Amino acid sequence: MIKLSPSVLAADFACLKDEIEKISGADYVHIDVMDGHFVPNITFGPDIVKCIRKLTNLVLDVHLMIENPEKYVDVFLASGADIITVHYECNMDYEYIKNKVKAAGKKLGLSIKPKTSADAVKDFLPDLDMVLVMSVEPGFGGQKFMSESLEKIKKIRQMDKNIDIEVDGGIGEGNIKAVADAGANVIVAGSSVFKAENVRQAVENLKKF
Ligand code: DX5
Ligand code: ZN
Known about the structure:
- The protein is of the alpha/beta class.
- It has helices at residues 16-22, 46-55, 73-78, 94-103, 149-159, 176-182, 191-194, 199-208, and strands at residues 3-6, 28-34, 59-65, 83-87, 107-112, 130-134, 164-168, 186-189.
- The protein has eight helices and eight strands, in the order βαβαβαβαββαβαβαα.
- The protein is globular and about 40 Å long.
- The termini are close together.
């Protein structure tokens, strides 16, 4: 059974409460934190995570697209994040982050960008709860799915049968089966959920694909 993680990046922030309510049939809430350095876009910080925490009991899946995430891991944990994912490609104190997330009893994810090979995550697998395979260049919602990511998902699934594999970028009703068949079990969907005419229906359709 897959877990669906709608990305609030595509939500209407003027009515965040309603938007979060509409995805109550999903499993996680995917929260894209961008710093304008690691990626060319800026989104939101821990205070918004805290607001979302008050609105839902769904798992908060925080995707940190930032440099030096060790500076912010404590504050994101305190804000109510359940999963903290950092990028393999950023500058970071990985040991510090790992210890903080584990000590808080939360889950740790490591993400790889489209040009990073699956082998990069190999040595980290014993520590990790989740690997996030980006299927678009991180920074923006609404981009086209890169099908090369399917091979990467398969490769990571061969390395580890049990780890959560999340895939993020350009996923909708047309390709969710392909990513699940490749071995991903946590599926991010931004535009295909929040830009749908009927958001509740979109969640339902993606869940049963
Ligand atoms: C991109 C983000 C994604 C994005 C996905 O950098 O990490 O989570 O919100 O949006 P869609 O599903 O529209 O590609
Ligand atoms: Zn994301």
